[in-house]
C-alpha cells in the first residue's frame, strides 16, 4: 500500500481523510499558541497500532508543516506532505498488530479547511479561537486519524497569553503561569473521536456549578454572566432527567463554553458543548438546543458512529431528547411534537434516505426530524417499558465505543420480542414517509 488505498480509506463521506490501516490509542498534544499572530507550534505524541502491515503511516494534517518526525524514538527522514496529508515511511513496514509511538513536531498558522459542509476546524474568533471539527476538521490543529470510529484518549497541554482562558476536552489537571503565559493541561481518558476533541480560547470567566450530580464547568464572557445563569438554570434537572431516561451520564464532568461571537449553531464536543453569544438571551430561548447538545454526550459522543452514514443515530436521538425534555418541563408533549413534525415532513420533499443520506445531506434537518420520528414511532410500536429499556441497553452496551444501525435494529428486536425489519426498513431505507395508518 503506497497511497491511502480504497480498502483503507476512512469514510466514504469524507474521502481522502482518515484510514482503517492503523488505530490510535492516545494523543498527547503539547501546543503553544500566539493569539496576536495566530501561530500554533506543537508536538504530537501518538501511540498507535498497525491494523495491517504498514509500509506508510498516513495522518491527516491540514496546512500545518511537520518539521521533525520520530518513530519509536528514531528520527525519520522519509516524510512527505501535501495540503491535507502527512505520510510517514518507516525504514521497514510495521507488522500488523504492532504498537508504535510517533512524535511529530509541527507548526504554522492554523485555519479552517474547506469541506462540503463549509469551513471546518480551527477558526479565529474576534478575540480567541474556536474549533468546530465535525465531521473531519481536526487535521487543522493536530496530526490525526480523522475518522469517527477511531477513538483515543487525549492529553492536551496548551500555552497561551495569561489573559486568555483555554478550555479543552477533558478535566483540567494543571494550570501554571510563567512570564505572562499560562499553560493549561487537560486529560480526557475516555475514548474520544478526533472530531470531538476540542480547543476553545477566549477572554472568559470560569465558574463551576457543583450543585447537581454532575459538576458543570462554564467559560463565558463576563458580560453574559446574568443571561447565562438564567438560561442554564435547567441544566442540573436536565442532567438528572436524561440520566434517568438514557442511563448514567457518560463522563465525570460537563463543560459549557459560550463565545463572545455569534455562532450559526451550537456544537457538541467530548463532555462539552459550545454556544454563541446569540444563544444566550436570558429568557430560555435556546433551551431546546441546550437539551440537544447535552443528549449528544450519550448519543454521538459515548455511543459513537463508526461511519457517517449512520448519523441519524446521533442526530435523531438528540432531536428526540429535545421532545422528551419539552414534555418533562411541561411544554408540548413528545407525541404532539412528533405529530407536528410528521405533518411538516409530509410537506417537505421526500427524496432523502436517512439510513444513508449521502455526504451532502448528512446534516439535513430531515435526518434529525425523521430520525426522531423513527424513535417516537418505535416507542409506539414496542411500548414505553421496552423502549426506555432499549435506550438504556444501547447506551450501556456501546458506551465509549462505536456502533451502527444494524446493531440498533437487532437490540430493538430483542427488547420488542418481535421482528422490526419492516418497520426500520420503511423509516430508514426509503425516501417516502411511512404512513401512520
Ligand atoms: Zn446534533
UniProtKB/TrEMBL annotation:
<dbReference type="Pfam" id="PF01433">
    <property type="entry name" value="Peptidase_M1"/>
</dbReference>
<dbReference type="GO" id="GO:0005737">
    <property type="term" value="C:cytoplasm"/>
</dbReference>
<feature type="domain" description="Aminopeptidase N-like N-terminal">
    <location>
        <begin position="26"/>
        <end position="196"/>
    </location>
</feature>
<dbReference type="Pfam" id="PF17900">
    <property type="entry name" value="Peptidase_M1_N"/>
</dbReference>
<dbReference type="GO" id="GO:0005615">
    <property type="term" value="C:extracellular space"/>
</dbReference>
<dbReference type="GO" id="GO:0008270">
    <property type="term" value="F:zinc ion binding"/>
</dbReference>
<dbReference type="GO" id="GO:0043171">
    <property type="term" value="P:peptide catabolic process"/>
</dbReference>
<keyword id="KW-0482">Metalloprotease</keyword>
<protein>
    <recommendedName>
        <fullName>Aminopeptidase N</fullName>
        <ecNumber>3.4.11.2</ecNumber>
    </recommendedName>
</protein>
<comment type="similarity">
    <text>Belongs to the peptidase M1 family.</text>
</comment>
<keyword id="KW-0862">Zinc</keyword>
<dbReference type="InterPro" id="IPR014782">
    <property type="entry name" value="Peptidase_M1_dom"/>
</dbReference>
<dbReference type="GO" id="GO:0006508">
    <property type="term" value="P:proteolysis"/>
</dbReference>
<keyword id="KW-0378">Hydrolase</keyword>
<dbReference type="InterPro" id="IPR001930">
    <property type="entry name" value="Peptidase_M1"/>
</dbReference>
<dbReference type="GO" id="GO:0016285">
    <property type="term" value="F:alanyl aminopeptidase activity"/>
</dbReference>
<keyword id="KW-0645">Protease</keyword>
<keyword id="KW-0031">Aminopeptidase</keyword>
<dbReference type="GO" id="GO:0070006">
    <property type="term" value="F:metalloaminopeptidase activity"/>
</dbReference>
<dbReference type="GO" id="GO:0016020">
    <property type="term" value="C:membrane"/>
</dbReference>
<dbReference type="InterPro" id="IPR042097">
    <property type="entry name" value="Aminopeptidase_N-like_N_sf"/>
</dbReference>
<dbReference type="InterPro" id="IPR027268">
    <property type="entry name" value="Peptidase_M4/M1_CTD_sf"/>
</dbReference>
<dbReference type="InterPro" id="IPR050344">
    <property type="entry name" value="Peptidase_M1_aminopeptidases"/>
</dbReference>
<feature type="domain" description="Peptidase M1 membrane alanine aminopeptidase">
    <location>
        <begin position="238"/>
        <end position="427"/>
    </location>
</feature>
<dbReference type="GO" id="GO:0042277">
    <property type="term" value="F:peptide binding"/>
</dbReference>
<dbReference type="InterPro" id="IPR045357">
    <property type="entry name" value="Aminopeptidase_N-like_N"/>
</dbReference>
<keyword id="KW-0479">Metal-binding</keyword>
Amino acid at each position: 500500500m503506497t497511497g491511502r488505498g480504497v480498502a483503507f480509506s476512512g469514510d466514504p463521506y469524507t474521502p481522502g481523510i482518515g484510514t482503517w490501516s492503523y488505530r490510535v490509542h492516545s494523543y498527547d498534544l503539547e501546543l503553544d499558541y500566539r493569539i496576536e499572530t495566530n501561530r500554533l507550534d506543537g508536538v504530537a505524541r501518538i501511540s498507535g497500532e498497525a491494523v495491517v502491515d504498514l509500509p506508510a503511516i498516513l495522518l491527516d494534517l491540514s496546512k500545518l508543516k511537520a518539521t521533525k518526525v520520530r518513530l519509536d524514538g528514531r528520527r525519520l527522514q522519509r516524510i512527505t506532505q501535501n495540503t491535507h496529508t502527512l505520510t510517514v515511511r518507516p525504514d521497514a513496514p510495521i507488522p500488523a498488530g504492532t504498537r508504535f509511538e510517533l512524535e511529530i513536531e509541527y507548526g504554522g498558522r492554523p485555519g479552517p479547511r474547506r469541506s462540503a459542509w463549509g469551513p471546518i476546524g480551527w477558526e479565529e474568533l474576534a478575540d480567541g479561537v474556536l474549533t468546530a471539527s465535525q465531521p473531519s476538521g481536526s487535521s487543522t490543529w493536530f496530526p490525526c486519524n480523522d475518522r469517527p470510529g477511531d477513538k483515543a484518549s487525549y492529553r492536551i497541554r496548551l500555552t497561551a497569553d495569561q489573559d486568555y482562558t483555554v478550555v479543552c476536552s477533558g478535566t483540567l489537571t494543571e494550570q501554571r503561569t510563567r512570564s505572562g503565559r499560562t499553560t493549561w493541561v487537560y486529560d480526557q481518558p475516555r475514548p474520544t473521536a478526533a472530531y470531538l476533541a476540542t480547543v476553545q480560547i477566549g477572554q472568559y470567566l470560569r465558574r463551576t456549578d457543583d450543585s447537581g450530580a454532575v459538576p458543570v464547568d462554564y467559560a463565558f464572557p463576563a458580560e453574559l454572566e446574568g443571561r447565562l445563569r438564567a438560561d442554564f438554570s435547567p441544566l442540573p434537572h436536565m442532567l438528572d432527567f436524561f440520566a434517568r431516561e438514557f442511563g448514567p451520564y457518560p463522563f465525570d464532568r460537563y463543560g459549557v463554553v459560550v463565545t463572545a461571537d455569534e455562532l450559526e449553531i451550537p456544537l457538541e464536543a467530548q463532555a462539552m458543548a459550545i454556544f454563541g453569544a446569540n444563544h444566550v438571551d436570558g429568557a430560555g430561548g435556546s433551551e431546546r438546543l441546550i437539551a440537544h447538545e447535552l443528549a449528544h454526550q450519550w448519543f454521538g459522543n459515548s455511543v459513537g458512529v463508526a461511519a457517517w452514514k449512520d448519523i441519524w443515530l446521533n442526530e435523531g436521538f438528540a432531536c428526540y431528547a429535545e421532545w422528551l425534555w419539552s414534555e418533562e418541563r411541561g411544554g408540548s408533549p413528545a407525541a404532539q411534537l412528533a405529530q407536528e413534525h410528521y405533518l411538516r415532513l409530509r410537506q417537505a420533499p421526500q427524496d432523502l434516505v436517512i439510513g444513508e443520506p449521502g455526504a451532502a445531506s448528512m446534516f439535513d434537518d430531515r435526518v434529525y426530524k425523521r430520525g426522531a420520528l423513527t424513535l417516537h414511532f418505535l416507542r409506539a410500536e414496542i411500548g414505553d417499558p421496552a423502549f426506555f429499556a432499549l435506550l438504556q441497553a444501547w447506551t450501556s452496551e456501546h458506551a465509549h465505543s462505536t456502533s451502527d444501525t444494524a446493531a440498533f435494529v437487532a437490540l430493538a428486536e430483542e427488547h420488542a420480542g418481535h421482528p422490526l425489519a419492516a418497520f426500520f426498513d420503511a423509516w430508514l431505507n426509503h425516501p417516502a414517509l411511512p404512513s401512520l395508518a
